[in-house]
Amino acid sequence: AQRVTQPEKLLSVFKGAPVELKCNYSYSGSPELFWYVQYSRQRLQLLLRHISRESIKGFTADLNKGETSFHLKKPFAQEEDSAMYYCALNPNRGSTLGRLYFGRGTQLTVWP
Amino acid sequence: ETGVTQSPTHLIKTRGQQVTLRCSSQSGHNTVSWYQQALGQGPQFIFQYYREEENGRGNFPPRFSGLQFPNYSSELNVNALELDDSALYLCASSSASGNTGELFFGEGSRLTVL
Lengths: 112, 114
Known about the structure:
The complex is a heterodimer of chains A (112) and B (114).
Chain A lengths: L2 E3 L4 E5 L4 E3 L2 E3 L5 E7 L6 E5 L10 E2 L10 E3 L8 E8 L10 E2 L3 E6 L1
Parallel strand pairs in A: 2-11
Antiparallel strand pairs in A: 1-4, 3-8, 5-6, 5-9, 7-8, 9-10, 9-11
Chain B lengths: L4 E3 L2 E4 L5 E6 L6 E7 L6 E7 L2 E5 L6 E5 L5 E5 L8 E8 L9 E2 L3 E5 L1
Parallel strand pairs in B: 2-11
Antiparallel strand pairs in B: 1-3, 3-8, 4-5, 4-9, 5-6, 7-8, 9-10, 9-11
């Protein structure tokens, strides 16, 4: 069965410090992995997806199939990065089916 | 471009009642998915609608049902409400011909069952 685990419910760092939000998944096939973010008083939105291999707002995430992980990283956190971050898995790679499996989320707080 | 809109934003019901939540998809999107988000949890997939038909369902009982209309808007209906149905219900739209996996979410309807 598909499962997405975000072990940290809360994560606090100081501005300028590196940040890593952990995500592990269980799935036997080749999934697509995503990070969604929800800023205060805003709706849930896509941050990045592993197939794009892009950096968004300074964040990157590498899919490690051996460790079944998709950790989100940023070398220098900013106060505006404070938000709830959700890791999500699409088991139907290449499909537009809107079924994603979400982790429980990690609340990131960046202190000034 | 109009984003996903949901109504109502908040509502309170009692056990055993029925509720209907509504969602208008983003302009140009023909697929609507519904998610339930309990407090402290991530969104959990309920079902998806494409071309007015249910196209995938999560682990939810039949008392959770839905509709999609020709204009791609959608409804989520929950019968015989239970206390555990209290949650934020999120609607998300996407395009069947667009990028996979990117969902555009509404702000949600917060349901409280007393």
